[in-house]
Design goal:
2 domains, 9 helices, Rossmann fold, seven-stranded mixed β-sheet, alpha/beta, globular, Jelly Rolls
Length: about 400
């Protein structure tokens, strides 16, 4: 594999590590998933052999003592899974029974070795995924769920389908940066952010297009995926395929399928198919389609939780009030579809309840969405709407697929 650049980053040539060799997989060194440690001198390919399918912890030693932030990409099979950052030393991954090809490829910062050893063992944790149409939906609907999962020690992957570019491509990096800062309040680092990077308000087009290679142009005039390279957050297709993806339905669906198939989340949180906003409605429907596609050849049955950001009335959710001292007075959510015209019964919604610390973290996270709260020269902000999601609970309807 020749060296390829992502912005200023370099993906280095892969070499094999020195560890136990298996005759059944002679071309790749093997790490048995039994806590065995293997030296990893440079970026490389290797094989992890497991006795059963499930979640495994890959723990790695840092190859630098400089403390400088560097990122190595972890690939399962042929697809990008996650960034490995110097801020953490273990990642939970799903591995199939038998041989699993794994690759480590540098994606950001320096040429000296970043990973110098790898240990693999069965995990007591799992992975959950939040699929958000836009940067901010993950906090408004699922901040409490994210904190609860992270508090259990689970890995939380946050997937942004669009890049927030509706009012101009320059806004894209700003909105991604705002979500990255917001997620820091919940304990989520940028290595667990996946930006698909398609155009804002394009998801409905992709759903209606079905299987199509027609290239769509976003409202901002873009035709290919983008992320926030100045932050070291690249769009998924670039990390996965070393090139940006054209805005087509087939690319969008393939990227989402590769993400879910590779991460294999036990639970997926997304917004409701009954919302009026087309990106929200169709993100749920496409997610459902992709899960069914994966199930054609894979024994995969996630629990999907859908919540609501845009209810049927503009006054929902009830706006945040303050008490006589000026402190927020936090209520619980009310039913977002009071007409009863959707098949989501309020008494069947699952709820989680946020602690005072979680409520504060959610409040502070929403404060990071400066453009959405305060607006810009081209659009008005809506801080009252955003802070209305600071509630003592969160809700969703769940279904096992």
């Amino acid at each position: 594999m020749r060296n390829k650049r992502i912005g200023t980053a370099v993906i280095s040539s892969m070499i094999c590590i020195a560890c136990v060799i298996s005759s059944s997989c002679a071309s790749l060194p093997v790490i048995n998933a039994d806590g065995q440690k293997a030296d990893v001198p440079e970026t490389h390919d290797f094989n992890i052999r497991t006795d059963e399918s499930g979640y495994y912890d890959i723990s790695y030693g840092h190859g630098t003592e400089s403390g400088e932030e560097r990122t190595t990409g972890l690939f399962i099979g042929d697809h990008y899974l996650t960034g490995l950052s110097s801020r953490k030393d273990t990642v939970t991954v799903y591995l199939d029974k038998g041989d699993n090809k794994v690759s480590l490829r540098r994606t950001e910062g320096g040429d000296d070795p970043f990973i110098d050893s790898v240990t693999v063992s069965r995990s007591e944790h799992r992975t959950v995924m939040v699929i958000a149409p836009h940067e901010d939906d993950e906090i408004l609907a699922f901040a409490g769920s994210i904190m609860s999962a992270a508090g259990r020690g689970d890995t939380v992957k946050v997937v942004f389908m669009t890049n927030g570019d509706y009012f101009g491509k320059e806004l894209s990096e700003v909105r991604i940066a705002e979500s990255a800062k917001a997620l820091e309040h919940l304990g989520i680092g940028k290595e667990d952010i996946i930006v698909m990077g398609y155009g804002d308000v394009q998801i409905g087009e992709f759903y209606i297009d079905g299987s199509s290679d027609e290239v769509r142009t976003s409202h901002a005039g873009l035709t290919a995926t983008s992320g926030a390279p100045s932050l070291g957050i690249y769009d998924y297709h670039l990390l996965d395929q070393s090139e940006h993806a054209s805005y087509t339905s087939n690319n969008f669906r393939a990227d989402l399928e590769n993400i879910i198939r590779t991460v294999r989340p036990d639970e997926i949180y997304t917004v409701s198919e009954y919302e009026w906003h087309p990106d929200h409605k169709y993100s749920c429907l496409i997610t459902r389609d992709v899960i069914k596609e994966i199930q054609k050849d894979t024994d995969y049955h996630p629990v999907v939780h859908q919540s609501v950001v845009h209810g049927e009335e503009a006054t929902w959710p009830v706006r945040l009030k303050t008490d006589s001292s000026g402190n927020p007075s936090v209520d619980r959510f009310t039913y977002p579809f009071p007409s009863g015209n959707v098949p989501l019964e309020w008494n069947k919604a699952e709820r989680i309840y946020l602690t005072d610390d979680m409520i504060k973290a959610k409040y502070d996270a929403i404060g990071e969405f400066v453009t959405q709260n305060e607006g810009t020269d081209t659009f008005d902000g809506n801080s009252e709407f955003n802070y209305a999601f600071v509630k003592a609970d969160e809700f969703y309807w769940s279904e096992k697929y």
